[in-house]
Amino acid sequence: MAKNVGILAIDIYFPPACVQQEALETHDGASKGKYTIGLGQDCMSFCTEVEDVISMSLTVVTSLLEKYEIDPKLVGRLEVGSETVIDKSKSIKTFLMQIFEKYGNTDIEGVDSTNACYGGTAALFNCVNWVESNSWDGRYGLVVCTDSAVYAEGPARPTGGAAAIAMLIGPDAPISFESKLRGSHMSHVYDFYKPNLASEYPVVDGKLSQTCYLMAVDSCYKNFCHKYEKFEGKQFSLSDAEYFVFHSPYNKLVQKSFARLVFNDFLMNSSSVDEVAKEKLGPFATLSGDESYQSRDLEKASQQVAKPLYDQKVQPTTLIPKQVGNMYTASLYAAFASLIHNKNSTLAGKRVILFSYGSGLTATMFSLQLRDSQHPFSLSNIARVMDVDGKLKSRHEFPPEEFVENLKLMEHRYGGKEFVTSKDTSLLSPGTFYLTEVDSMYRRFYSKKTKESSLTPAENGVIANGVANGIANGH
Ligand SMILES: CC(C)(COP(=O)(O)OP(=O)(O)OC[C@H]1O[C@@H](n2cnc3c(N)ncnc32)[C@H](O)[C@@H]1OP(=O)(O)O)[C@@H](O)C(=O)NCCC(=O)NCCS
Predict the structure, then answer these.
(1) How far is the CA of 229 from the centre of ligand 1 (A)?
(2) Number of domains present in the structure of the chain
(3) Is residue 308 assigned to a domain?
(4) Does the CB atom of residue 152 touch ligand 1 within 6 A?
(5) What is the 3-state secondary structure (H, E, C) of 411-454?
(6) What GO terms in the biological process aspect are recorded for it (predicted)?
(7) Which of 209, 235, 256, 459 has CA atoms 20 to 30 A from the CA of 202?
């Protein structure tokens, strides 16, 4: 059986278009500080009319293969996680096959996984399980998380975002799975869902989704601790992992979630927290589960107690989610990418715990061990390839009015056919794919921006869907 199976390489893409949360607050007439301090968000990336989840995933997969010099023939499984529905039948994975078909590789298993923000985790588990299984053929797995998170006008709108992440899976990985250490919580709830197929926007019960998320954190942590005790023969506490990474719809919820873990540790073993913490959390020890989710005093006290540990174990994971927003399936892995960006030189030998949540609901807490590894699959090279600072710095800020205009155009185009986009790629870096046209049969056509031109589709980089030879002449 393959050993130390996990993530060998990562690349991330987020659109260059963004809007500052402070400006959005003013524009929306929200009280000053609501989005920036209240939700804890700094900025939000969004797709303009030339980008979507397919173009972003074409960009990130092409970039990963090029930058780590991976032969496309050596990919044997490709799994996509997304909740941004473009087609009810044809998977995003099949669009990505264009990259591999060119090299004669059509022998690639895997399709898309969907359940709100959890699809990426399902895709990742599928790939890791494949490499660990009898059906593994010795080739790489590839996981893509791609989403554009947009909300109707209202309180949820500032919790949008957009990104795609690609992760290469194989043995002897610098980011290896402790596959037995997983705790899940799955249940039937209507907290956030997308029943209206004519609209990209979800139906969301914001308050319920917050409570469901926190309940899932508690339940997954309990199940995780139980598994840890079963397989490791000792009790788990927060001190057994160096970092905790959360799915991040907005940063405030991450702060609250980590505080819940501290409260859980206190309840399971009060000697795991210091005297001051005991005194602060003691009064809440007898609350029922339901009462504890409603108690603002507990929320405040546990966040206060957790603050120093949060700064140490969670804060380094928050950069991209605060800057880019909720990326749905990509959100957790963008948080993890932030950790690699910030701490790559000191991560070897450390355990990192991840918490994945998808409304509806599905959630899992799982464990990774970080290890030294050879170039190109080293943590420092992953950080270099991702170039998070460079990508954040080269974004273009739009005023909120233009962000809203863009959303209106996207609403109009959603599910539409027979339109061409502006093909304006002035904001895109070379190598980025973009949508050029949706034809009368709803077939979508993409081009790749080359170094030379920003407005004309590339002769040799044209990628088309629905055309047998993969070349869309005239588009
Ligand atoms: C998350 C969501 C419910 C928040 O919207 P809302 O109900 O209008 O926001 P609130 O009134 O609760 O304000 C948000 C926070 O900002 C705080 N706040 C409000 N105004 C503020 C101000 N001027 N300065 C500082 N903080 C402020 C509130 O106290 C609250 O913090 P708290 O949760 O610690 O109490 C909404 O954005 C949403 O539905 N998002 C989509 C669903 C989602 O992401 N769910 C997460 C789980 S998947």
Answers:
(1) 36
(2) 1
(3) yes
(4) no
(5) HHHCCCCCEECCCCCCCCCCCCEEEEEECCCCCEEEEECCCCCC
(6) acetyl-CoA metabolic process; farnesyl diphosphate biosynthetic process, mevalonate pathway; sterol biosynthetic process
(7) 256
